[in-house]
């Protein structure tokens, strides 16, 4: 629901410009200030969306879209760099706010009849008054899995990991597919092996732009590593004491690798 906060409300703010988070020279993340202190945002009164509560204050999203804040006080920080430093509560709010902003930016017109869409005020959805078509924020489930073989873990380097980072295997769930089927298919497609003994681990919203990563631990069953050469350019079994560059601990991939380490070192 869009609203205008009162000038003297002390709140937390997630302010977005394009794919950046607007900062006022403090720690990256949610800004704590009064609405009246956001002088550059006055034109957006009535465009504010509440995304939750944080430390006993309301937390609001303000999406400037392609408009620059135009204030010398502000800095812009990338979403990924911002999320890396957050507590899990703040992470969740920022991820949610970013996904909502992305949803609103990409659902301005009806996909069925082409008329303008409107944000409804009883739930988070965009509605076309012309044909009744309704859209909800998009969430794309992806599986991500750590595969253990004796005392080793399978890690792969994706084509897009320019830094040379090796990570756990991951991929989008396809229409009509269960999460478990997606794990077996992705692992076979990307690394050419079969896995068994899938155990649900945990999940993590990954707002780049709207994935829900569903983590599994798995054991090697059969086959030799054979990478697809498309998404994955290299994959190997690694011992825990000779890991390559891996994802940070805040990511579910980093957590899956740590969980596998604990299984191995048991
Ligand atoms: Zn329509």
TrEMBL record:
Enzyme Commission code: 3.6.1.22
Q: Which UniProt keywords apply?
A: Hydrolase, Magnesium, Metal-binding, NAD
Domain Nudix hydrolase: start-end pairs: 137-260
Q: Which InterPro entries match?
A: NAD-cap_RNA_hydrolase_NudC, NudC-like_C, NUDIX_hydrolase-like_dom_sf, NUDIX_hydrolase_CS, NUDIX_hydrolase_dom, Znr_NADH_PPase
**Which stretches are transmembrane?**
none
**SUPFAM superfamilies assigned:** Nudix
| Cofactor list | Mg(2+); Zn(2+)
A cellular component annotation (GO) from this entry:
cytosol
| Reaction(s) this enzyme catalyzes, per UniProt | a 5'-end NAD(+)-phospho-ribonucleoside in mRNA + H2O = a 5'-end phospho-adenosine-phospho-ribonucleoside in mRNA + beta-nicotinamide D-ribonucleotide + 2 H(+)
Give a GO molecular function annotation for the protein.
metal ion binding
Which is a GO BP term held by this UniProt record? NADP+ catabolic process
Tell me which family the UniProt entry assigns to this protein: Belongs to the Nudix hydrolase family. NudC subfamily.
The name under which this protein is listed is: NAD(+) diphosphatase
Q: Which gene encodes it?
A: nudC
């Amino acid at each position: 629901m869009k609203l205008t906060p009162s000038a003297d409300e002390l709140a937390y703010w997630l302010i977005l410009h394009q794919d950046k988070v607007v900062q006022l020279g403090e720690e990256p993340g949610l800004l704590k200030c009064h609405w009246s202190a956001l002088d550059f945002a006055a034109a957006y009164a009535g465009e504010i969306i509440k995304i939750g509560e944080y430390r006993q204050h309301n937390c609001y999203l303000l999406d400037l879209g392609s408009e620059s804040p135009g204030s010398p006080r502000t800095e812009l920080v990338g979403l990924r760099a911002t999320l890396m430093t957050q507590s899990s509560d703040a992470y969740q709010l920022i991820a949610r706010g970013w996904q909502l902003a992305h949803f609103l930016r990409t659902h301005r017109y009806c996909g069925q009849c082409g008329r303008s869409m409107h944000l409804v005020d009883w739930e988070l959805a965009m509605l076309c008054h012309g044909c009744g078509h309704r859209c909800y924020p998009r969430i794309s489930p992806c599986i991500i899995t750590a595969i253990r073989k004796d005392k080793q873990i399978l890690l792969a380097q994706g084509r897009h990991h320019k830094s040379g980072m090796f990570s756990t295997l991951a991929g989008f769930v396809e229409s009509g597919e269960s999460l478990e089927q997606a794990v077996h298919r992705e692992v076979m497609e990307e690394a050419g092996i079969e896995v068994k003994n899938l155990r649900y681990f945990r999940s993590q919203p990954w707002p780049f732009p709207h994935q829900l990563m569903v983590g599994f631990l798995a054991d090697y069953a059969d086959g030799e590593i054979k990478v697809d050469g498309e998404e994955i350019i290299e994959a190997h079994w690694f011992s825990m004491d000779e890991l390559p560059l891996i994802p940070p601990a805040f990511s579910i991939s980093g957590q899956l690798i740590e969980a596998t380490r604990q299984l191995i070192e048991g």
